[in-house]
């Protein structure tokens, strides 16, 4: 199985462990917000524009 993009960038030396952990944290936070508030803020903005 191939490596994830994050793992590939880490292996190539483009990013460091700190940047990978920060990206994972941001992704986790966004997923929590998505679950807590339902639709993403972008989707809600589009719905509001249609009304």
Number of strands: 0
**Oligomeric state of this protein:** single chain
Count of the domains:
1
Run of helices and strands: HHH
CA(first)-CA(last) distance: 46 Å
Q: What's the number of helices? A: 3
**In percent, how much strand structure appears in the residues?**
under 5%
SS content category:
mainly alpha
Could you explain the architecture of this structure?
This protein has 51 residues and is mainly alpha-helical. It has one domain (5-50). 0% of the residues are buried. The chain has three helices and no strands. It has helices at residues 5-12, 17-37, 41-50.
Write the layout of secondary structure elements.
Blueprint (H helix, E strand, L loop, with lengths): L4 H8 L4 H21 L3 H10 L1
List keywords for this structure.
51 residues; mainly alpha; 3 helices; 76% helix; 0% strand; elongated
